[in-house]
Amino acid sequence: MITAQSRQTCASDQQTIVVIGNGMVGLRFCEKLVQYDTARQYRIVTFCEEPRAAYDRVGLTSFFAHRDAEKLMLAKLDWYSANGVELHVGDRADRIDRQQRTVTSQKGVVIEYDRLVLATGSYPFVPKVPGIEKRGVFVYRTIEDLERMISHASTSRRCAVIGGGLLGLEAAKAVYDLGLEAHVIQNTGRLMHRQIDDAGSRVLVNQIAALGVHIHLNCTTKAVHGQTQVEGIEFDNGTRLAVDMIVVSAGIRPRDELAVQAHLELGPQGGVKIDDHLRTSDPHIYAIGECAYHNGMIYGLVAPGYEMADALASTLTGGDKRFEKADVSTKLKLMGVEVASFGDYEATIETATPLQFEDPFGGKYKKLLFSRDGKYLLGGILVGDASQYGMLSMLAKTRTVLPCPPHELIVGSSTSASAVGGIDGMPDSAPICSCNNVSKGAICAAITEHNLESPAAVKACTKAGASCGGCFAQVTDLFKAHMKRLGKNVSNHLCEHFAYSRTELFALIKLKQLKTFPEILKQYGTGTGCELCKPTIASILASLWNDNILDPRHEALQDTNDRFLANMQRGGLYSVVPRVPGGEITPEKLIVLGEVAQEYNLYTKITGGQRIDLFGAQVQDLPDIWEKLVDAGFESGHAYGKSLRTVKSCVGTTWCRYGLQDSVGFAIEVENRYKGIRSPHKIKMAVSGCTRECAEAQSKDVGLIAVEGGYNLYVCGNGGTKPRHAELLAAGIDEQTAIRYIDRFLMYYIATADKLTRTSVWCDKLEGGIDHIRAVVIDDSLGLASELESMLQHLVDTYQCEWKSVVDDPEKRKRFRQFVNTEETEPCIEFVTERGQTRPADWPNEIVSLEQFQSDVDRQFGRVTDAETRWVKVGAVDDFPMDGGATVKYGKTQIAVFNYSSRGEWYATQNMCPHKKAFVLSRGLIGDANGTPRVACPLHKKTFSLKTGESLSDAEYKIKTFPIKVEGGNVYLDLPRVEILDDVYATEIGCSLATSCAEHRESVTAS
Question: For the chain, which residues make up each domain, given as ranges?
Fold first, then answer.
């Protein structure tokens, strides 16, 4: 809790605003009030019932993937104190006294108020069903709810989710992610009945059912069976379903109990009744968010709550914003299926004329509602493909006269996009971000006034795209359009060091036969490079010449995944992923994988690409693990690289009665041919033995589907963040022809795509799209076919297993040591400080700086600091890679040492990333930014000055630096004789193990 003692003293003329509720809407109000209240006329006090401050409830489902509550936090605790917001965490406001104008909390805190804001939100509605109180029944609302679900799911097999609305499907996704058999129970005839119609629901049901989730429509739960634990559900039609876990997500109800206690006026079905100024029946009390009843509505979405928060903050600081009607447009991705509704999507035939399109094969549905005269778009529903959402929703919101016939908006995104003239043609009032109420005009003004130079900068400045992220594509398009209108070029330069695009550099490097980064930098670049250009050029060099990426000439160019030939996970651990071509594996190899996982305590998972991932490996264990795997006949799976990942296959004619071709045999041939080939982005392939498509070839970068007499070849599919079906490149071709076409396709993509561009995006941006690719690959329209084939064949002929080269080379194995100055090892752990953790009373309460803390300890225990310099040898020059880093261990402290050889400089910093508290900085790429030497953390790419430790990307963070020198071929650090650190202060320099206060005192006494 941030107490009254820790906040600034209020001015006598300040009014007090008490905000009851610190959820997403409560926090947004505080943020807006801080922004608008430039005269600081208000003191802000907010009560938070939950044990943590406001977090992203919209992104709650992601918690199942990362299990990290910190990643969901919307503001750090420092923000509240820095802005004078008095925050009471874990303390519920219990009583309002309207006569005395006081709020009393559960813990006995009493606050007088001038204005009171109710932002108490809602609670899950649980139907009164016999047995619903049994163990194994959960609601889906808070992080604590999810933690209880996760714990119970470990002993469960089948789960029913009661409710097929938005939250119900989110809960079903969570259950599905937990590995349980999932059943969705809906008492009406369609899913998401508030957002989509019957036809849209039918498409959504089919898409979700295809994942293996069972949908039960028109089923009302009559009873929950079992003694004390859930054993099943009985429906009103007499049927039963055996389950051992239930999640109730049947809607929400407003949290209005405080309003009832205070005798405020409520709506007919509850909720605190408010006017357009957000006032309740008491002029000193306001309500916002899901607890408020306004004009016949209780809104269950975050965007209307944000609008209310903004309007109220404006009103209380002299503005004139009113809340009259909220936009309830939504764009979601539910279990991989895009769903969107916007405008007046429930308009009837009396006021609107509908146009509908349904593709049952592609799982897509569109319904657009137009004014009777066809001049205006009123609203619409999109299922399966919401790529047009941004443009269509703006047309509906602004009631802009259509620049094209209505049918052109429904026949395809490319046609409609060109028809409406693009985002640049929209009026300034057009809302771009509904969540944060940011208009096109506001974004354009911010770009001009603040000289914003990227879509990411626009998001940081305006918050457009910062909540659900659904509008960020429109933000990007608007940024490009506005920059063009200002006469500014949107640079395609690789970075500040190279005034060329990736495509241009690829051609130049090939033409000049350049083989190393220094050669390329000398001819075409400036400075010493950075974390953007180094991996890109490393990939180009590998695509052209295919030298081993750990060759000393290339090692320092590799991002951490390629440098250590493994995918970095949370906390600095790595994954081990052997290649399993086509998904075919022997029992003997399975046994080896199991033995390795047991020996090194690795988490195992079978992936969608039909291979086995082993997670949680320490960096120093990787060579030993791979030595065992290489001896068993495994090769590197390249899960770490921008390269071919997998070739998925069904069993084809090997076992399947429907199989037309040997899909397994051909998948193995394809994977063995293209394994290890570096590319602008990762590549996935698949081979299906018939048109039943069990290998899902049409969602891959390259997909082959067996037909009578051969294969159909599909390209440019993507199952990633923006799913896209592959397009047919050639039909009925034999295996030899398929290989030839794939060779040409891959090499053309590698040579012409921008950095980090998937084949699907590359195709969409190519002039002519798939037709152009077909002309190049099949018709040889550019006369490059033989050259493309020759280039690809060179990569095939020069393939080598990267892990085998490490296992067989003692010098390469040395690079995997945890510490260069000792054979000791430590577990690679995340450094986490528990919220609310107490320390002994004699330790300082305020974190100031390491130096101040050391001084306080010295004074407290009577120790005099030795001021003499003490240079400690930490290794030889050859222990540290050129233009790279390595870790040294000093006592219980990890320090990153960087040999910036291209500048002739050495640097030393703490090894712990201050963002995620993982000991990984030495593995980051080093480079310069406007001449400043920097390191990029390999976890999340935050950059830090190697000279000062200041963050170059986020002022909130800083790292400790240490004096360093090189003499006689040895490296020395100037380090203190004794570091006295507790588990909080250790974060400042990277102490890798928590040390007790008693141990601190012992070390002081000994000194």
Answer: 4-123+254-316, 126-250, 340-421, 425-489, 502-558, 564-641, 850-1006
